[in-house]
Each structure stands twice: as C-alpha cells, then as structure tokens.
Amino acid sequence: MKRRYANIKEVSEYTSLPVKTLYDWASHGRIPSIKYGRRVLFDLQDIDRIMESLKRDTNQNEKTVNKIVGDIFYGNV
C-alpha cells in the first residue's frame, strides 16, 4: 500500500526542502497541511502538485538569451 500522508521530516526528505521552510509554508497557508495535536501531516498528492507548480519554464531562459542577442545584434543596447 502506498502512503498518502507524511510527517514533516518525511516531506523534507521527499522534497529536499528544509523542515523550517515547510513549517513556515504550512503556517502561512502556502502549502496545505493537517494539524493533528502537535503533529503536522501533509498529503503527498498536494506536495507533488505544489512542487510541479514551482518548476521554472525551461523556454524562458532561451527567450531571454534570444532577446539579449537580438538587442546586441540590432544595436538596441
């Protein structure tokens, strides 16, 4: 059976994010969490969606380089 919920230490290892960052994000509502007594649990499906949304657009770097090269070539600098 695949686990759906994980504690903060497990999510930290899963995402390579520091525990402190996860606590901060959870307390500010940046990531959904479940507070159960003193424990904080995270739905791994939510974590996967959030990490996916944080990915950078790989084409953005190419667009920036092309604009800089174009500006230099056409004397717009």
Describe the structure concisely.
The protein is an alpha+beta fold.
Mind explaining what this structure looks like?
The structure is a single chain. With 77 residues, the chain is an alpha+beta fold. The chain has one domain. Helices cover 56% and strands 14% of the residues. It contains four helices and three strands. A three-stranded antiparallel β-sheet has the order 1-3-2.
Q: What share of residues are in beta strands? A: 5-15%
Structurally, the number of domains stands at 1
Computed CA radius of gyration, to the nearest angstrom: 19 Å
Structural class: alpha+beta
Q: What letter string, H or E per element, gives the SSE order?
A: EHHEEHH
Percent helix range: 55-70%
**DSSP summary: helix tally:** 4
Largest sheet: 3 strands, antiparallel
Distance between the termini: 59 Å
Major sheet: order of its strands? 1-3-2
Low-confidence stretches at least 5 residues in length (pLDDT < 50)? none
Report the strand count: 3
Mean pLDDT: 85
Question: Which word captures the global form?
Answer: elongated
Assembly of the depicted chains:
single chain
Properties at a glance:
77 residues, alpha+beta, 4 helices, 3 strands
Topology:
Blueprint: E1 5-7, H1 8-15, H2 19-27, E2 34-36, E3 39-43, H3 44-53, H4 58-73
Antiparallel strand pairs: 1-3, 2-3
